[in-house]
Design goal:
This protein is mostly helical. It has seven helices and no strands.
Length: 96
């Protein structure tokens, strides 16, 4: 994850009430999906998996926004690259 993306994410998540931060995540879901794809292409498997795992903890995001399935698919691929079979299974459970 780039320093700029990390810093912006933390600013939004920590600088606002939690509900507002989740609303921001939901509004920016297309960017998260694209960023996850770009990070995957760069071989940043640990970061891709970390993002996907974080999003698993937010059930309504998973249920309401279909493009998150791509984040979970990329998370599963990242887990596979990292040799983490448990995480790979967890990611598959999110997008089936």
């Amino acid at each position: 994850m780039s320093d700029r993306l990390r810093d912006e994410t933390l600013r939004h998540l920590l600088g606002h009430p939690l509900g507002e931060a989740w609303n921001w995540l939901e509004r920016e879901h297309v960017n998260w999906s694209a960023s996850s794809g770009a990070a995957s292409g760069l071989g940043w498997h640990a970061e891709v998996l970390a993002l996907a795992k974080t999003m698993c903890r937010r059930g309504s995001v998973r249920d309401e926004i279909k493009s998150w399935k791509e984040v979970y698919r990329l998370g599963a691929a990242a887990a596979r690259e990292l040799g983490d079979r448990v995480a790979e299974t967890e990611m598959f459970d999110q997008f089936r």
